[in-house]
Amino acid sequence: MGSALYQTIELLSQEKGIDPGIVVGAVEEAIALATRKYYKTQENMRGELNKETGEITAYIYKTVVAGEEQIEDPLNQITLAEANELAPGVEVGSEIRLYRDTSPLGRIAAQLAKQVIFQKVREAERDTVFQEYAHREKEVLNATVKRVEGQDVIFDLGKAEARCPRREQSRLEQFSVGERVRVVLLKVDRAAKGPQVIVSRAAPELVQNLFQSEVPEIYDNTVVIRAIAREAGERTKIAVQSRDKDVDPVGACVGMKGMRVQSIIRELRGEKIDIIEYSDEITTFAEKALQPAKVSRVSISDLTEKQLEVIVDDTQLSLAIGKKGQNVRLAAKLLGWKIDIKSEEEKRQEVEQQMQAFSSGPSTPIEQVGELGDSIIQKLVAAGITTVEALADMTPEQLEEIPGIGEKTLEKISIAVRHYFGHFEEGEEGHVPSETAAVTGEAEAAVQTEAPEPVSAEQEAAGEGAEVPAAEAEERPVPEAETAADEILSTTETQQEDEDKDEQQQAAEEDDA
Predict the structure, then answer these.
(1) Partners of 46 in the beta sheet?
(2) pLDDT of 370-409, one tens digit each?
(3) What 3-state DSSP class applies to 423?
(4) Which CATH superfamily is domain 134-200 in?
(5) Is the pTM of this model over 0.85?
């Protein structure tokens, strides 16, 4: 049977969860240090504890060398001749012990030994805690509330204490001393004061563990949890998928009359839980993730950046976004994609702006069309027409409604616009707006339907009529073309005049006779 001192050491080791040999080693080291300090020596010294009697002894030890010339450290080495005098039969290389009396050690030496023992025990305890929990991160542990320090809660894990900071707590939870709860081991911080175990009640792994405990289908992997997004104390979204086509994953998690999910909600102090069926199609998954809002359509706006565009009805916009953006934030976290939510009205306005920006090309000030003249330009600007493109888009009827613009002015505007766009190269003419072509085409048709002024035989012989200035021809109204009846009448009158001349000449010849 061991001594009372050794039994005390064993009890201390069991309480701290460390090896008794570590405590014994700490006691022996403390005695050796106190003895060396008492005798004020720098010689190598060791302590020794007798487990049966509980007696503690201290001794210095020296290494045996052959002769004086081999001695390098006189304090810790001894020659073979001197060693034989103290202990006959020793050999070179062995150690010789010289015991010191520990009975004179006083209170100061005992206090020093106590500090050394406590320090060694604490270091051993820290190493034990670190080795116990360092590899168990993200694991759910059962813990007991030990005390509350400010906003932090201290849990007892059995072999160590764990700290739960405020940021890792749910706002719905209030703990009382002695209460048993489940916590998630976040990390083990090996700080200067020893390893500190950090636990959490806000981690998504807690919800996953609760579902595994309450839903047998999840425990046996018939139903798999694919993703979890959680805001502790507010709402959790969990996506589940069934490996058996005959098993409904959502129904299995909800349970009969919601019994399974209700027990989890009670454990989380009333936190809301949305259970969603997982889908490999990201657009379908996004529609389900945004529940309870009804989504009109989902499209991928940027595949590389993982960004989705979601369109909802105007009445569903606030529901899809959620309180302070919570619903869309959790859905984005669940999907791993960025989500841009827009209402139908916002999308319509965006499309209209894009179409307007696409249709509106480069604008040219109307002052660049010099053929119009200052007076016409002033009238057009007063009517709100400031660019050539806007002028080309207007129909003749719309232009006639502008005060001060008549048929002649309209004709001049048409010619000026036609000449302006005629300066473009053939490749650029294809870009002339269709309304411009309509305006210029109508003007050309109007001019072409009017017949040119008839040229007499004398004018034709003199070469007149072929070189009438274009501007003069445009300004002067062109008479309408004669009909076939008019041409016949003109021919008949000419023949009648010739016959009258012949009769008069014949009468004159008869008078002369």
Answers:
(1) 59
(2) 777 788 888 888 887 877 777 777 787 887 788 878 787 8
(3) coil
(4) Nucleic acid-binding proteins (2.40.50.140)
(5) no
